[in-house]
Design goal:
By secondary structure, the protein is of the alpha/beta class. Helices cover 47% and strands 15% of the residues. It has 17 helices and 13 strands. The chain has a five-stranded mixed β-sheet. It has a five-stranded parallel β-sheet with strand order 7-6-11-12-13, sandwiched between helices.
């Protein structure tokens, strides 16, 4: 068998080029490095990928769009933000990936997210390409009128690059039902088309899919369930530490609880809460989604809960950890704390929330580690289901949609697990997910020629 630990020279050459061309983009470099290092066995098995320049092409977006977004706030002052859309790969289908509105957004973050999306979408097997977009606009604390004006300005530029057969955005951090409604409404007005399939995450009353809101969090837990099942284990009675308190975190907690686990933490940028009796999800949802408050308010309504300011929840003893907030939120020290407390599974609900050193520490200790491109594929998988419903003018029930999501997540798990085994890295979901996704994209690129 080929020594799969040997990294071919082409990998180093391509990564050096990425560093030279993108010198101030650490997140993008990190994402590329993680993929390139782990696909060495695929390159050994399929040397035609190297000969056809698949690596050189796959690390370069097909198109990068950057634009200004001028809008007027409630006091009448002009504000200007930056908008982005990086269309990375359309070889498997129309570009697909969310929009993120957050002050931290820059080109590096959008490119890393778009690059990850290529392989995540490939793993779902649903014929969708990879893209990502967003803005450094912060919707937190803004009025509905301000958010509407921003979204209308943003879409007035981006609309020309979208379409159900071209590029289909969805929501992400800072882009929920409110923002999607304003964005879709502006697209419809500008184009004079009710093109339901050009945006996913819509309200169920006007073209959205059941379970889309819950999909990423539910899907993450379905993936954890599949990881444990390989070892004859279940979620029953397991303590689950979750970071974040947004959509992914809330519904990961919800599904974990439905399957017999006890979610004990939640967080935001101000700190985290721990509730040993199990997080009251309805209370948390009311605080974060209805009142748009801070996580500290939780302890005012829940006896026995504690708020820890300025910290992340990885020192709390737990069997399962699901980081669901943002990139690089779980570092090596956090990983060692989880290990010392006996963590069994770490599954990335967010995109690249674990640093490379954290991943290495967890895998070295034998912790089951699920990478984001596999674990959080449920959101985009259900977006593709929404596209299918829009195309056929159908509407599936919640139960039907959840069953389809569960089946897709099991398929994603099995694809990653089987690829890891096939390439001599049994149980390594990072290698498995990257290899399985890369194979699907690579074969399509090979078939379609140099474009």
């Amino acid at each position: 068998m080929t020594d799969t630990r040997t990294v071919p020279p082409i990998v180093h050459e391509v990564f050096a080029t990425v560093q030279d061309r993108n010198p101030h983009e650490p997140e993008f470099q990190q994402a590329v490095h993680e993929v390139l290092e782990s696909i060495a066995p695929v390159l050994d098995e399929h040397p035609q990928f190297v000969d056809a320049g698949i690596l050189e092409r796959i690390v370069e977006p097909e198109r990068q769009i950057m634009f200004r977004v001028p809008w007027v706030d409630d006091s009448g002052r002009l504000q200007v933000n930056r908008g982005y859309r990086v269309q990375f790969s359309s070889v498997l289908g129309p570009y697909k990936g969310g929009l993120r509105f957050h002050p931290s957004v820059n080109l590096s973050i959008i490119k890393f997210l778009g690059f990850e999306q290529i392989f995540k979408n490939a793993l779902t097997g649903q014929g969708i390409g990879g893209a990502k977009g967003g803005s450094d606009f912060d919707p937190h604390g803004r009025s509905d009128a301000e958010v509407m004006r921003f979204c209308q300005s943003f879409m007035s530029e981006l609309y020309r690059h979208l379409g159900e057969h071209t590029d289909v955005p969805a929501g992400d951090i800072g882009v929920g039902a409110r923002e999607i409604g304003y964005l879709f409404g502006q697209y419809r007005k500008i184009t004079n088309r009710h093109e339901s399939g050009m945006f996913t995450g819509k309200g169920v009353q006007w073209g959205g899919a059941e379970v889309r809101t819950e999909a990423t969090g539910y899907g993450a837990v379905f993936f954890v369930q599949a990881m444990l099942a390989v070892h004859g284990e279940t979620l029953e009675g397991r303590r689950v530490a979750v970071s974040g308190s947004g959509n992914v975190a809330l519904y990961a907690m919800d599904k974990a609880r439905q399957l017999g686990a006890v979610p004990v933490t939640a967080s935001d940028s101000s700190g985290y809460v721990v509730d040993d009796g199990g997080i009251d999800i309805d209370l948390l949802r009311d605080i974060k989604e209805v009142r748009r408050g801070r996580i500290a308010e939780y302890v005012e309504h829940r006896t026995g809960a504690r708020f820890v300011p300025g910290e992340r929840p990885w020192r709390v003893p737990a069997d399962i950890a699901i980081p669901s907030a943002t990139q690089n939120e779980l570092d090596e020290n956090d990983a060692l704390a989880l290990i010392s407390n006996g963590v069994r599974v770490v599954a990335e609900g967010a995109n690249m929330p674990s640093t490379p050193d954290a991943v290495a520490a967890l895998q070295r200790d034998g912790v089951l580690f699920g990478p984001g491109k596999a674990v959080n594929a449920g959101g985009v998988a259900t977006s593709a289901l929404e596209m299918s419903q829009n195309a056929s003018r159908q509407r599936w029930t919640f139960a039907d949609s959840e069953r389809k999501l569960r089946d897709i997540m099991r398929d994603v798990h099995d694809a990653a697990f089987d690829a890891a085994d096939r390439y001599g890295h049994d149980g390594d979901y990072v290698v498995g997910a990257n290899c399985a996704g890369f194979e699907r994209v690579g074969h399509a690129m090979l078939a379609q020629g140099v474009i």
